[in-house]
Amino acid sequence: MDFENAVVVSTFPNHETAEAAVSLLQSEGVEAVISSDDAGGEIPSLELARGVRVLVQRENEEFARGLLNQGADQGDDAGE
Questions:
Q1: Where are the domains of the chain?
Q2: pTM value?
Q3: What is the pLDDT of residues 42-57, one digit of tens each?
Q4: How would CATH label the architecture of 3-77?
Q5: Residue 67: enclosing H or E segment and its boundaries?
Q6: At 79, is the pLDDT very low, low, confident or very high (cuts 50, 70, 90)?
């Protein structure tokens, strides 16, 4: 991952949800990584305050956001 050209496409409340998003993106061929500030896992409660970010390359941003938003939309419909 070229971090100089990486952008945050979404922020999640915990690592598990962020990992699911990364898995979805990777299954579609998009390189994605997790970035969080939880003191190297020593203070996981910082996730609640700062969230867990998912980053992709700038050229994949629009596609990645579309994939993640599509998943969110489907989740909203599941309860109807």
A1: 3-77
A2: 0.78
A3: 666 666 667 899 999 9
A4: 2-Layer Sandwich (3.30)
A5: helix 61-77
A6: very low
